[in-house]
């Protein structure tokens, strides 16, 4: 497999980035903070997408971490070749996964392809995202291989046993789920529930046995509260008589308060409507709508495309002009017909004739022959020059036509761009000739103005409806009274007699009576519950026996499930041993390449956990320095990749995994990459020059 091109529209801090990759080793060297890790994460996201999670930590929430810093479309595209076919995958991401988009195009036809679904990485590499991150995706400070079911299936290369692996996963998941049903953290499983239920039953049973003697005491407490409640009731009736005459005043006062409140609300809503209408009136004309602005945005993008095409056409014109000048220079360098040769040939011929007449036969004959020969050679040269001139004339005509075609194409793009930019300028009310970046800024201002206008328009409409409802409520309230009643309660005067203390005392007595009545009800209910509990003792004894039996059965079944899962995992580990030998051989091979002067004794288990024999004992990687740990894990990762891919090689993505290696180890690691890049494509991100 090979990645050909990468285009990032917006991803984290990266914006409008294009990158073309070659076969073999591709090194992306940039300073810390440039975005190398972000670019590596983008490549992974093009194949596997971004998981959605509500976690706040950026380390655990890639979607939140790589949200564009400058806004805009979140995503990009990647062109790759697998087998004999080339594709382009396009993805964009939203705040949630349901807002994501995915499209795959066949580059040979330009049409959308259905060769691979949205789960592109799993289909291409036959690995899930976690397994991909633990194999050919090398991330700085985290290059541990580790094992999962997807990676295990890939390492064993057992397509014929896929059903067995699936059955194992299904059986293991079923056993674990069933065990979780019985026992969970925090004692939340069925066993915990049964233990809690049994505890509650025994406590209830003991409580019922203790409550039989408490019924008489509760009856005495109820009688005392009933006597006190009757005394309070008599006091309340006396107070109610005292304030009976003030009831009419209270009713009218409440009506007046409601009237004043509705009136105040109506006036307040009318003032809000006036302010909203004033704000809307600031717009002398309605701005363009969303559809018109979207069409304008498309024209801006199209104008920018024409500009790019115009630059390409301009380059073709310069190329044609250079070709034309080269042919003209070649034409200027052709030899002209030599007048001197004609003069020499004539002179020699005349001298020969004179010599013959004067009877200088021998010299005259020689001179005559020399003149004739010179004339013959000049005529022959002229024929050759004429033939060359015809060839140059043909080249010159072809170059002239090529230049004319290139100029026509260039003029066509210029005309299209200028015409489209003119339309955009008229729409945005900006001067002709404004550049595309300025047009984009003007478009954003126009869109902001349109949105503000719509918000003010909606606010005005909401204020209008609320003002109308408030006024109608106020007028409707007034219509419920006659003119005399309305005048009466609007002109209401507070009585001279002070009744606040009487009302306060009445409320206090009522609250005391309500509390007593509530206590009486509670006491009656509790006494009734006590009587009912005494009757529940036989039933609770049966419940205790049942719960104890169910708890015993649940504990026994959980033990059987635990043993079954243990045996199943043991069988799975024995199944995984088939790829372990190959991985250990590959590990030793790469360790010798990275550190040839050391006698290595590595060991690896089926979970890809490494140990290195040192000083007579097998030691875990934590005993070694960060540089040595990285070297061990790089060798392990490479052996895993070799074991996974027997046919078509994957692209290795290395996000500066050699950061902890010293100079000599780093040099050998780079030599190893150069060797490995002869068979597979690599993308190496580093800040080392």
Structural notes for this entry:
The radius of gyration is 48 Å and the shape is flat. A hairpin with an 8-residue loop joins strand 5 (85-92) and strand 6 (101-106). By secondary structure, the protein is of the alpha/beta class. Residues 158-166 and 336-345 have low confidence and may be disordered. The strands form 3 sheets. Strands 2-1-4-5-6 form a 5-stranded antiparallel sheet, with helices on one face. It has a 4-stranded parallel sheet with strand order 3-12-11-7, covered by helices on one side. Helix 11 (339-357) packs antiparallel against helix 12 and helix 12 runs parallel beside helix 13. The chain is built from 18 helices and 12 strands.
Write the layout of secondary structure elements.
Elements: E1 2-11, E2 14-20, E3 25-29, H1 36-48, H2 62-65, E4 75-82, E5 85-92, E6 101-106, H3 120-125, H4 129-133, E7 137-139, H5 149-156, H6 162-182, H7 190-211, H8 215-242, H9 247-281, H10 290-332, H11 339-357, H12 361-428, H13 436-479, H14 483-490, H15 500-576, H16 580-594, E8 602-604, E9 610-614, E10 617-620, H17 626-644, E11 652-655, H18 663-676, E12 682-686
Parallel strand pairs: 3-12, 7-11, 11-12
Antiparallel strand pairs: 1-2, 1-4, 4-5, 5-6, 8-9, 9-10
Helix pairs in contact: 6-15, 7-15, 8-15, 9-13, 10-12, 10-13, 11-12, 12-13, 16-17
